[in-house]
Amino acid sequence: MRAGELILPLLYGATRAAAVDSFDYIIVGAGTAGLVVANRLTEDPSVTVGVIEPGTDQRDNPDVSDWRRASVPLGTAVDWNYTTTKQSGANDRELEANQGKAWGGTSAINGMFYIRGDAAQFDAWEDLGNPGWNWDSLFPYFKKSEKHTVPSDAQLAGGATYEPQHHGFEGYVHTGYPLALRNSSFASTMLQTFKGLDVPHNPDFNGGDVYGFTAVPQTLDTKLDIRWDAARAYLYPIEQRSNLKIIQGTVTRILWESEKADRSSCGSDCSFARGVQFVTDDGEGHTLDAKKEVIISAGVYRTPLVLEGSGIGNPRILEALGIKTEVDLPGVGENLQDRSNNYLAFAGYMGASASAYMHFYKASDLFGSKITGIEASTRASLSKWAQAIVDASGSSALQVTAIEKLLRVQHDLLFKHNVTAAEILTGVAPLGVELFGSSFWTLMPFSRGNVHLQSTENIHKPLIDPRFFLIDFDLTTAVALGKLARKFWLSKRVNEFTKTQVVPPVNILPKDATDAQWESFMRANSTDNYHAIGTASMMPRELGGVVDPELRVYGTANVRVVDASVLPIRFSGHPMATIYAVAERAADIIKKAW
Fold this sequence. Notes:
Blueprint: E1 7-9, E2 17-19, E3 22-28, H1 32-41, E4 49-53, H2 62-65, E5 82-83, E6 96-97, H3 119-127, H4 135-145, E7 146-148, H5 153-157, E8 173-175, H6 185-196, E9 212-215, E10 220-221, E11 226-227, H7 230-235, E12 244-248, E13 250-256, E14 261-263, E15 267-270, E16 273-279, E17 285-296, H8 303-309, E18 312-313, H9 315-320, E19 327-328, E20 340-349, E21 355-362, H10 363-367, H11 371-380, H12 382-393, H13 400-415, E22 420-428, E23 433-442, E24 450-452, E25 463-465, H14 472-489, H15 492-495, E26 498-503, H16 515-525, E27 527-528, E28 559-561, H17 575-593
Parallel strand pairs: 3-4, 3-17, 4-12, 7-8, 17-28, 18-19
Antiparallel strand pairs: 1-2, 5-6, 9-21, 10-11, 13-16, 14-15, 16-17, 20-23, 20-26, 20-27, 21-22, 22-23, 24-25
Helix pairs in contact: 1-17, 4-17, 12-13, 14-16
């Protein structure tokens, strides 16, 4: 079959088919970001958009739509089920690395918490060399994407609070609180205990300051009582648009014009994408032409694979894979930043509603009177840490001075700007005698890893190496946080509800556990928190950046990346809210470019 005869299924799953072989824009991935961009670009009926996605429509899958089953989709057919390489900092264990394989991407399988982050962290993006990327410029897009539901009286009694000036009420993404959130004796006890631990109540995490504790909104429709993922938000309401097509398949590489383009955006030696190559589930290969742009929204783990498969990346890695270098860009796949997760569980009587409370801490909360010495000692270690990151990457193309600059920006955020450094999620089950407890993770670990294509024969098997606890300070911070998490459960008020520490058993982590016992527990039990970012970072090329402030891949005229991989530095919120905002802004940037 010739490319011009390609038969593509229509978006809405009808039996009819359309002969199409070109679009104005080709979007690689129907995930959280890709569907936002597809929606906004096709607002213009003269624009055609083709979205290529290996996952499928899951609107009728109760494991996706029922928010109560938030963790059920993990490890199923709607999850890519990746694993990391063996993590030396975690007892050489291979860890699960989840990413959604469905329309809606990871928004279809995640925990749904809608938390943005601290304003100073977004301002740091601009400080890295991205003019116009800061909290004030993103805030309107946070609001544009959101449709917030005001909590009910019962939810307010259960601990929900909000400040209307921080929310949008006309967007596509429904946010709110579960119907099950209601007042209870345990909810009241939790709130009073937080206050007793000198953690301030924060009425709304989404105004650029997440310090303190509160109940957190989630991406769900409170009336229908269902998950509101990116497909339900941005695709289903507009799926009848004739200028939008979803094509099931896996993009393996971008196709290039034989001659370099001369564009002001990237100079006279600029690669111009003419389309993409993709394969269907039966292994048959096809091509599609892009009249204007190729937009990669394949996610933090898959976007680097598409770039490398297209000849964009570190020439040493590409040569080993037998791929001709199209653009020498060694930052592709590097700067992977993720969070490790730990869990404490107790058995006891709750008599409480299903609910989740978040509490965010600063470094000063974790280290108390030691904070001055820790600030100085960690600053003195930055160059050593940068060298360790470069050495672990095995890439001679990475620069220690560049990595050190990134670490210094992060250090300033933690110790000069006092952004939040750690998070605890306290969960309460709706039954009588049941397990309940806390997940906890550090928000801005200094360790960095990478993601690379392992084989041109199988793009579905990436090499994912987050290098958890490569930097010892990350483990030190996690231990300090674990102690705070358990302090909550052992406090006098809450202890009335608890019976036994179940995870880990007290013989593994006794009440008077030493730092060595805590560290041993962390290394043996930490998991991936699935908040990865950075593998195609938006920052200057000399710092290891992959895309410019307009999200265009360096060295190309018409290839952009729009997903979590462009986020250059950690922020305290969960990635989803920020991905929606970045994608909304990216759509405006793309529209203005043409």
